[in-house]
Specification:
Helix content: 40-55%
Number of domains: 2
Order of helices and strands: HHEHHHEEHHHHHHH
CATH topology of the largest domain: Arc Repressor Mutant, subunit A
CATH class of the largest domain: Mainly Alpha
Shape: elongated
CATH superfamily of the largest domain: Winged helix-like DNA-binding domain superfamily/Winged helix DNA-binding domain
Number of helices: 12
Distance between the termini: 32 Å
Length: 233
């Protein structure tokens, strides 16, 4: 199971969900892909601008993080996306409009809300035409040490997440990220090695100019001496 590092402190953007989502819709959804697509629709549409807001099939298929999440539901991500959208439309959560543009059919998805229904009517009556998509990618707010750990060291367990949170409170984020990159560059993917580098910087100071001037000297500094105990020879 992939661990979660926890919500960050301070102000973060929020996505509003109407109460009927929890009382009426959530208990009825029995398909994980449909649930993910439904939540994604609320998130993405809340960040769009314009009188009428919609999602197109192109922008949904282009969001790699969304597809990565849907791939965990089993089967090819594109097929899960199509099935999940079909389920959301059949349930009535999303409203589908199919239009022809430049010789091809486009699928537009509106939320089944007063604004979404008004947009669908305006489109059907010829009172409004969709413009070019301004896609909202499902990306992380910022790179962080939790994702770096998952990408380069291994699964993020709750115990490791707690260790990383403690480390963030003790050292600047830039130090931690750089120490992790040094560990990856030296092929020593151990957190004890990263921690040793951070402790060394804290005790002896960090001379970035020296490391930038002589990369071989910097490499030897973290592969020899007291750091050699962390490296398998």
């Amino acid at each position: 199971m992939q661990g979660f590092a926890g919500f960050p402190e301070g102000k973060v953007r929020v996505t509003p969900l109407p109460n009927p989502f929890f009382s009426d819709l959530l208990p009825a959804i029995d398909h994980l892909g449909e649930l993910k697509v439904t939540l994604y629709a609320f998130w993405s549409l809340a960040r769009k601008e314009g009188r009428y807001r919609y999602l197109s099939d192109e922008e949904l298929a282009a969001d790699r993080l969304l597809l990565d999440g849907l791939a965990r539901c089993g089967g090819p991500a594109e097929r899960v996306l199509a099935d999940s959208l079909e389920r959301a439309v059949a349930r009535g959560t999303l409203l589908l409009a199919t239009i022809e543009e430049d010789g091809r059919l486009r699928r537009l998805y509106f939320l089944n809300s007063p604004r979404g229904r008004a947009g669908l009517r305006a489109l059907a009556d010829g009172e409004w035409k969709p413009g070019k998509d301004a896609p909202v990618d499902l990306q992380l707010e910022r790179p962080n040490i939790f994702r770096l750990y998952e990408q380069n060291f291994g699964p993020l367990t709750p115990m490791i997440a707690e260790t990383l949170r403690d480390t963030e409170e003790s050292y600047p984020a830039s130090w931690i990220e750089d120490a992790m990159r040094i560990a990856v560059a030296n092929n020593v993917r151990k957190w004890t090695y990263v921690r040793a580098i951070l402790q060394d910087w804290h005790t002896r100071g960090r001379d970035e100019r020296e490391d930038l001037r002589d990369t071989e000297k910097a490499r030897r500094r973290y592969t020899e001496g007291e750091f050699s105990d962390f490296i398998e020879h």
